[in-house]
Amino acid sequence: MIGRTLWAIAEGYIPGGSTGEGRALESHETVCVLNPNDRDAAVALTLYFADREPAGPYRFTVPARRTRHLRFNDLSDPEPVPRDTDYASLLRSDVPVVVQHSRLDSRQSALALLSTMAFPAG
Amino acid sequence: MIGRTLWAIAEGYIPGGSTGEGRALESHETVCVLNPNDRDAAVALTLYFADREPAGPYRFTVPARRTRHLRFNDLSDPEPVPRDTDYASLLRSDVPVVVQHSRLDSRQSALALLSTMAFPAG
Amino acid sequence: MIGRTLWAIAEGYIPGGSTGEGRALESHETVCVLNPNDRDAAVALTLYFADREPAGPYRFTVPARRTRHLRFNDLSDPEPVPRDTDYASLLRSDVPVVVQHSRLDSRQSALALLSTMAFPAG
Amino acid sequence: MIGRTLWAIAEGYIPGGSTGEGRALESHETVCVLNPNDRDAAVALTLYFADREPAGPYRFTVPARRTRHLRFNDLSDPEPVPRDTDYASLLRSDVPVVVQHSRLDSRQSALALLSTMAFPAG
Questions:
Q1: Are D96 and D2 in contact (CB under 8 A)?
Q2: Is the model's pLDDT at D30 over the cut of 80?
Q3: For residue D74, which phi and psi values (nearest 5 degrees)?
Q4: Which region holds residue D117: left if phi is over 0, alpha if psi is between -120 and 50, else beta?
Q5: Percent of chain A with pLDDT over 70
Q6: Best CA proximity match to B116, nearest among A74, D113, A8
């Protein structure tokens, strides 16, 4: 199977403001998970902060031969992700997957983007 | 030989709009393939989506000692890549290559860029 | 334990100017360290320059199950980081961690972002 | 010693235009090399194109315990790097180093940045 089962993203920050119109241009952070394998992947995401115990796990499924681009903004169970707050994340999957992290920041009058492959920790 | 034969990119998204003039500043996503070896590389690209079976393979060649920066926007055979839609990609090559992913987003009045090395999965 | 104990970041540059208001939008460079393990990590950061001997070590702690996003702008002991100057950095930790690097540049009228996972050198 | 002796960057593109004032805000591409070791590194850079044989080697030194952030714009020997042209690069060093790639694009009214760690190919 293709990928890894443990991925880490050391950076995380959802800007509290946006200048863009609509959901597409709203400031957001995304974890992109690709499951190119033939078995559904059960994923658990844990969030780490500077000054409190971790949040989560946030659980979701990435079906076989599918990709899922999940906005951290949309996470709500067990709790929402605070804005304007530093965090980091660790993703465990029972099936190997590939994980990439990106942010769209539209706080100022033109959007900015960042993206990096997550660190394959296991 | 230099490189790997299997690469994964978990993020993919071609913005539907642009503010730039001309092809250079049109919003686009690119897969950059470097073949520093002395044999031509036959590459097959497969695209993964959130809610349908994968598309492809899209086939192209990267000649020996050449680089090819292919826009996902330009893919048409077997089918074009939908705009404003999340996707991911997997690239297989019969000769080792190096793969990097980038996007230019000019939806707002100033362009934004992202780039990351793809994940060497095999 | 998750992570690595030696990380390298070849790029470093704190823009000397900003157009954003407030600390959040001030041009800055950040090293993001995630310690998902159950032991506190003692970290030492060394900075390399083009034409002088290295600076540091800058020492800090990342507690167990915490992340710390440290701005290079804020480093002062043993010396501040010069602005508008190329540098690079090496991070050693006594406990495995995961390290990511990012920059927010607000010299012009709209901010720009970059981010990349650091290189796991050991 | 820390690092690797062979690095690949699949993406390369120097925008032909700039809106920024001065050298700092001119559109440029940079290869950042960190040599944290105690021996000087002799580096050779080869550039690959879409439709011609490679250019180079471009030779330079990164002294022990130093970093060098070299603009592709400034390369001239054996030949300058064409603007508005896709290229890729391969960096060989006789001493292990760490390599990162970045671009500042100021073609439009606000700059954009990208950066990614190069691929450690050997």
A1: yes
A2: yes
A3: -90, -10
A4: beta
A5: 93
A6: D113
Q: What does each C-alpha distance from D1 to C46, D5, D95, D96 come to in angstroms?
A: 16, 11, 8, 7
Q: Which residue has the tokens 């925008």?
A: D15
At position D78, the amino acid (one-letter code) is P
Q: How many CB atoms lie within 10 A of CB B100?
A: 27
Which residues have CB under 8 Å from C121's CB, separation 6+? C4, C6, C7, C8, C90, D2, D3, D98
- One-letter identity of residue A114: L
| Amino acid found at A27 | S
Find the mean pLDDT for residues B59-68. 98
- C→B contacts (Cβ < 8 Å), by residue, are 109-110, 112, 116
- Using CA atoms, how far residue C54 sits from B20, C58, D35, D92, in Å, is 43, 11, 11, 24
What percentage of chain B has pLDDT greater than the value 70? 94
Cα angle C39-C41-C47, degrees, rounded to a multiple of 5:
170
Spacing of C-alpha C72 from chain mean position: 5
Q: Decide if pLDDT at C20 tops 70.
A: no
What's the whole-number average pLDDT of chain B?
Answer: 89
Share of chain D above pLDDT 90, in %: 63
Who's near D17: CB < 8 A, 6+ residues apart? D27, D107
Q: Cβ–Cβ of B121/A111 closer than 8 Å?
A: no
| Nearest by CB: A116 against D109, D110, D116 | D116
Mean pLDDT of C78-102: 94
Locate tokens 């044999």: which residue? B39
Q: At residue A24, does pLDDT exceed 90?
A: no
Residues B5/B94, Cβ–Cβ less than 8 Å = yes
- Placement of tokens 């893919």 in the chain: B75
Residue D13 to residues D65, D87, D88, Cα–Cα distance (Å):
29, 6, 8
CA distance C24 to C29: 12
With contact defined as 3+ CB pairs under 8 Å, the chains touching A are: B, C, D
Q: What is the ipTM of this complex?
A: 0.92
Report d(CA A71, CA C39) in Å as an integer. 30
- DSSP annotation of C26 reads S
Q: Closest residue of B to A62, CA-based?
A: B50
Encoded tokens for D76: 């001239």
CA A121 to centroid of chain Cα atoms: 16
Residues of C near A (CB-CB distance < 8 A)?
Answer: 2-3, 20, 24-25, 30, 32-36, 65-69, 97-100, 102, 104, 106, 109-117, 120
